[in-house]
Structure formats: C-alpha cells, structure tokens
# Entry
Amino acid sequence: KKDCVNAKTKLQNLEYKDRFVKTQWCNNSKQAFDTVIEIKAKYREEFLTDLTRKISALNIKMISLNTKILDDEIYASITLSIKNAEHLKFIIDNLLRIKDIISVKKV
# Structure
C-alpha cells in the first residue's frame, strides 16, 4: 500500500524501486472473490432472518455465516462472494440499513 510507512521509505531508495508494482482494482472483471465482513448489532429474535433476507434480496452469494450472541449484542462473520470494491461498498451500505445494526466492516 502506498500509505505504508515502510513502503514510503523503501520507495525513496533506488535499490528497492524495482520491487514495487503499481496495482488497482479491476472494476470490469467478471470473476468474483470471497471477502469476510463482520457485523455487530443489537440482539433481537428476527435479526438473522432480516440479515439473510437482505443478502438474498441483493443477490449476493453467501459462502459462510458464523454468529455469536454476547449479552444483548450479536456478532456475525460472513464470507461473501463479491465482484469489486464498489460492489463491497454497495453491500455494506445496504446492510447498514438493517434495523439494529451497529457496525459493518470488512475484515
């Protein structure tokens, strides 16, 4: 990553210049990749139903779903198949609209 302190230092040294490769997200690729997101929400009986319905309504392939309830909160780790960074942002924005969601983040 360009903003990495170690990378910035090494980029200034000509000895390391050839070891860096410029990259970017490919937004027109048809190939999907798996990514993990973590969700924190207030616990309620219908939460998992709402979560899985939203993922299904967005036509997103869910690879795995693990949950844990602690006190009055539910924590979910979900592996999803996504297309690119824009698709991930779209998914996160939509999941944040589910009632009682506290946070959604990519791991």
The longest helix spans residues 47-57.
